[in-house]
Amino acid sequence: MDVRKQTFPRLNCFSNYKLWNMNVKYLLIIFFFLLPFSFQAQQTLLDPERLWTMVETHCQPQGNVYSSHYLKVAGADTTIEGNVYKKLDYSADEAQTLWYEYGGFIRETPEGKVYYRRSGLDEGLIYDFSAQLGDTVVVLNQELISESLNMVVILEDSMLLEDGWHRIMILEDDNFPGEETWIEGIGSVSGLVRSCQNAFGSSCGDYNLLCTSDGDISVYINPNFPSCWYVTTRIGDGVEINTLKLYPNPVRDVLTIEGEFLKTGQNYRIQLIDFTGRTVIDRETSSSQLDMSKQVSGMYFLHLQTSSANYSGKILKY
Predict the structure, then answer these.
(1) Can you tell me the distance from the alpha carbon of 99 to that of 38, in angstroms, rounded to the nearest whole number?
(2) Residue 303: which pLDDT band, with cuts at 50, 70 and 90?
(3) Backbone phi, then psi, for 120, in 5-degree steps?
């Protein structure tokens, strides 16, 4: 009787270890890539410790003037038509010694939808942070307009602020010229209750969010303004804002720089400094554009030096 030699698969422990180790590496890469987005899902907008600072632009014949006010969520609950809202208070006093009722009520659902109603008016959806890329959000913000807007999410990304990563959403309505920016946990870049104002484009009476803070921590700082409290009584008061124009801001890829010094065509020194104080760009150029695509998300300080003057500005990269 023939006895055939039987073969069995060899166990290569080293190969199995390498395969296991490679899989672990891939899992760690995926984990750290998704980590910022897991933080974003936990953020709430209506934090009772949060303070929003707004600036309003008043168009005058002699030039723009500006006024600021604070907005916060009041602690007491108010029930209207079966829904539980938070009241909003405001202060036009930089020292925050006097607070008044704003005349608006706001509520947030666990899914990330935020509803707002002015006194005597129906509520409307002003944010939906559960929306994904390509979704349409039907916004009714009667702080601005009595008609609904069909805002489509055209871009979503993340941004590193002082308290961690925040999801950022860019939306637009095809019937209007502008784009709207929402930051999860912060709200609109026009202000908490000014959601979708940017859809209408620039106009007199604009609002801009200057800062948000949690206690003594400044979470968001508007890079287009010199401070978190901006008031002028006539053109020329305070700090000039428009000497250097940087757009789009926040920026994702290419930043455009506008200023009188660029019309000469001469070289100037450009320095880009991140929020840790590290200089990430330092070079001579005559270009009016700066590639930001390779920079990480967060706040940056831009310094430009010409033969006759220095210019500075703040940029948010997402």
Answers:
(1) 36
(2) confident
(3) 85, 0
CATH-assigned architecture of domain 245-317: Sandwich (2.60)
Beta strand pairing call for 65-80 and 83-91: antiparallel
The whole-angstrom separation of Cα 174 and Cα 195 is: 17
Nearest 5 degrees, angle CA 247-CA 248-CA 253? 115
Residue 182: count of CB within 10 angstroms of its CB: 28
**Which residue has better confidence, 56 or 244?**
56
State the Cα–Cα distance between residues 274 and 263, nearest whole angstrom.
28
- How far is Cα 232 from Cα 307, in angstroms, rounded to an integer? 30
Q: Which of 167, 170, 203 is nearest to 185 (CA)?
A: 167
Q: Are 179 and 156 in contact (CB under 8 A)?
A: no
Encoding tokens for residue 201?
A: 């484009």
- Taking the complete model, does pTM exceed 0.85, yes or no? no
Q: Across all residues in the chain, what is the average pLDDT?
A: 81
Please report, for the chain, the start and end positions of each structural domain, with discontinuous segments joined by +. 50-221, 245-317
| Dist. CA 125–CA 179, nearest whole Å | 18
pLDDT at 203: 57
Backbone φ and ψ for 157, nearest 5 degrees, come out as: -155, -165
In this structure, are strands 164-172 and 149-161 parallel, antiparallel, or unpaired? antiparallel
Q: Which of 292, 285, 291, 289 is nearest to 306 (CA)?
A: 285
Residue type, 143: E
